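Following up on my earlier thread - several people asked me to post the actual chain instead of describing it. Fair enough. Here it is, all 231 residues.
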Amino acid sequence: IDLKIIPDFTEFITAKGRVEDIEGLPIISIRNIPIRLGYSRFIKRTFDIFFSSAYIFLFSPLYLLISILVKLSSDGPVFIKQERVGLDNKKFFMLKFRSMFVQEKQKSDTIWTKKNDPRVTAIGQVLRKLSLDETPQFFNVFMGSMSVVGPRPERPFYVEQFKKKHTHYMRRHAVKAGITGWAQINGLRGDTSIEERIEADIFYIENWSLLLDLKIILLTPFKGILNKNAY
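Reply from S.P.:
Thanks for posting it. Predicted structure:
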């Protein structure tokens, strides 16, 4: 919720917010979300379209190679569509290369991946370690359900659990989910602290700029791709 208040002229209010003026009336936004402002939203969406389309075009041969390897590794589809929670708590289907043997939907939606998980295929272990299983998400970005940079989306089953256990968890859904993000380049992926991830995501949301997005993207190949916490 983007909360706005009308301060009394005798009050002095200090908050990390945004001061606006509506027909001469001072308005203070207590929770500042730069990405949701019209111009910023346009800039971010334009960048997402150009970046995702360029990535898909340049790495299409890699997509083809991975597709062949996944198909040869085990029976089942090349891609999987997994339900996740994104912007404004709305659900969407996230694309990934299949890295596990085919299993029942209930298990794939509710069971956390563990070390030496027998469900993961041989090629799947490599894809998950290098985060290559996530590259089809650039199609999600191009279509508008995700952004290149943003908080990582979670499965609805875990969102229901985390929002009860962790304060401010749902604030992550104030922006579109991303393929990479501030939390990822700081090593907060896989089996890591949920509280620290929330803190990193909120920092990104409140301090967003195009330069910050570019910084995260440039650091991702060095700090965000190789996932030591992926199983």
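The mean pLDDT is 86. That should answer part of your original question.
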